[in-house]
Amino acid sequence: MFTGIIAAIGEVAELQQRGGDVRLRVLTGKLDLSDVAPGDSIAVNGVCLTAVTLPGDGFAADVSRETLSLTSLGQLQSGSRVNLEKALTLGTRLGGHLVSGHVDGMGTILERHDDARSVRFTVEAPHELARYIAHKGSVSVDGTSLTVNAVDGARFALNIVPHTLQETIMDGYHAGTRVNLEVDLVARYLERLLLGEQAADPAAPAVDMGLLARTGFLKK
Fold first, then answer.
1. What share of the chain is helix, strand, coil (3-state, %, to 5)?
2. CA-to-CA distance for 45 and 4, rounded, in angstroms?
3. Which of 125, 154, 165, 212 could share a disulfide with 217, CB 3.0–4.6 Å?
4. What is the pTM for the complete model shown?
5. How do beta strands 150-152 and 81-86 pair?
6. For the segment 79-113, what is each residue's pLDDT rounded down to a tens digit?
7. CATH ID of 8-86, from 1.10.1790.10, 2.40.30.20, 3.40.50.1980, 3.30.70.120
């Protein structure tokens, strides 16, 4: 588990092809690895990876073919900048929101424009994730915990303050950039709970106003 508060910007040092998947080596810069051991989790652009070696200036992790195909890690090259966060501990301040490091899908940056000292981004999410993204709710973008400022169908807006631009890779985003999205954990589990026994049915209905009314969440 993670908080979505990026601790450092790392740099991809090497991608080694290994039997169809990849061994990724990342230079971690200012990220303190003194309390990290092989087997520990580190989020790279919001993807939870297991550190397998710690050569001193960073770490290496194996990335499966599925992860390469379903996240933006498949687009990384030597020199790519990445957001880094170590797994949280029970004593960690939860400054963002609970992030699992399990990416739900990839979104696309549609627009970028200045908004006073901040930058406003419009992001398009995959259609199947749109129902989990709510106005003033939380979303993780490349591992960064952010507040949704506006929603329009599968599109949502983010207002990014200067500190976040400086401490993450978001300052490099432009129209067309592909980003990893993880929706709020509570929204995903709430949907399954509302479906009840129907959750095991592949043809289960979506959570809609009718279902909310039938389960007592809407007053007649």
1. 20, 40, 40
2. 10
3. 212
4. 0.87
5. unpaired
6. 999 999 999 887 777 777 888 999 999 999 999 99
7. 2.40.30.20
- DSSP labels, 37-106: -TT-EEEETTEEEEEEE--SSEEEEEE-HHHHHHSGGGG--TT-EEEEEEPP-TTS---S--B-S---EE
Q: Alpha carbon of 14 to those of 48, 86, 137, 203: distances in Å?
A: 18, 20, 36, 44
How do residues 130-189 score in pLDDT, each as one tens digit? 989 999 999 999 999 999 999 999 999 999 999 999 999 999 999 999 999 999 888 877
Using CB atoms within 10 A of its CB, is residue 114 exposed (0-12), middle (13-18) or buried (19+)?
Answer: exposed
* Terminal C-alpha separation, the chain: 40
Q: Which two tokens stand for residue 186?
A: 């509570």
